[in-house]
UniProtKB/TrEMBL annotation:
UniProt xrefs under InterPro entries: CENP-P
The protein's name in its UniProt record: CENPP protein
GO cellular component: chromosome, centromeric region; nucleus
Pfam families noted in UniProt: CENP-P (PF13096)
GO biological process, one term: CENP-A containing chromatin assembly
Keywords: Coiled coil
Record's keyword annotation contains Chaperone: no
Signal peptide bounds: none
Coiled-coil ranges from the UniProt annotation: 6-33
Amino acid sequence: MDKNIFQPYEDEIQALEEEIRLLTEKYEDIRQESTFFSDEEILKAIKSFQRETWEETKGEASPSELKAELESLETDLSFLMKFTGFHFTSHSKKTLEKTRNRTLQKHRLSGKCHSLPFQVEFQLLEMQDNEKVSAVVSDLSIIMESREDSNVSKFVSSTEERGDLLTFFRSLSTYAEWYEHRRCTFLHFK
């Protein structure tokens, strides 16, 4: 009988212990990511940023000029979203490994292309050799509602196998545009 009285408290304690464990892992990940850079590199980056900011603000742009530039950027972004059909809703990046000439990051993107939602996860390995930088996509995972079209599932599977991210975005843009045209046409006839 006494055991039943304490059960909700024990469950709450276990839940809190699990939350503490997850937060500790997250803290360790963040701490590990920040230790990839030495104090010297951090100070150099801060000084470089301050120098760039100072050079940019020498002219002291007025608030009206900044507002006009912001409106111009918003117009450009709106145009690109209409032109490509892509609207990204979230992006996360986690550095898994960083050395002097090699960086491995895990990316997660989600959004919509026209009316089709998608989520893409991949690892990006960037290698720097002298002045040449190369990037390789691996572990590509695409989550997409294939709706009633089995060809989309086949396409997604083959794209994941090849790790061809550029082909995925190009093909998704075209497919989603025509999917939207078909949907509107069928709605018209209903």
